[in-house]
Amino acid sequence: MKLGLQIPYFTWPGGAPVLGAKLGEIARAAEGAGYESIWVMDHFFQIPMVGAAELDMLEAYTTLGYLAGQTSRVKLGALVTGVTYRHPGVLAKQVTTLDVLSGGRAYLGIGAAWFDREHAGLGVAFPPLKERFQRLEEALQIVKQMWSDDNGPYEGKHYQLAETLNVPHALSKPHPPILIGGSGEKKTLRLVAKYANACNIFGESPDAVRRKFGILREHCDAVGRNYDEIEKTMIRPMGFGEGSSPDQLVQTLGEYAEAGVQTVLGALLGVESMTAIETMGRDVIPQVKNL
Questions:
Q1: What is the pLDDT of residues 37-58, one digit of tens each?
Q2: Looking at residue 249, which CATH number applies to its domain?
């Protein structure tokens, strides 16, 4: 099993003047501790599950570019980009640029978007759910075309591109891995089977995860996709405190590994203190590599 560090919270002591330095310190420590990847949320406002909208939130792709310069090994991605936030052609260019400048370490994490407040707040269109999924599928088609040798036009219902030129080409081959976030059984997991290199589902319980993977397998069978080609990831916060020791965390992650999870991506409570990262590197990551 691999672990990825998600950083969803930036309201740290010292505020904006020290935020860049602290973020760089966290990224370097996470890489040194053995994390396989680092992820940031793609939001413009802080989300309700984490804190008030007025708390600090960094733009995802600027942040990932900064993290690329602070690290040398870890993969980098947004968990996940809302399809509504950026035109798919521009998004493909952003992820390609991240991949080139990081030496081939970019993921494209993408989903159908959900946080209506930040859309309304910044004047970003927020179409109905059905249309957002239509746009998501077209976006997946566009990025795959831009990461191919086909520089021709793309004609969709929602997006029209006169030419899908994308130079320089990404270093990752055949292209940066595409991760689709979400656990929806009818639409999201179908799109994973059809287009993605990785899924990201909610780690509600090992049994729930096992069930979702079973549905993904059915979608793969329906479209003729090899289920084993898809990286199975889940999102789950991690931390240590009363009733939560490193050994208990390893045991819990082992239960998810038995359910089919290959990679766990999640926030680490108290990450800014560095102590939690040190504990992960010493007591957790070496053990879960064997799961």
A1: 999 999 999 999 999 999 999 9
A2: 3.20.20.30
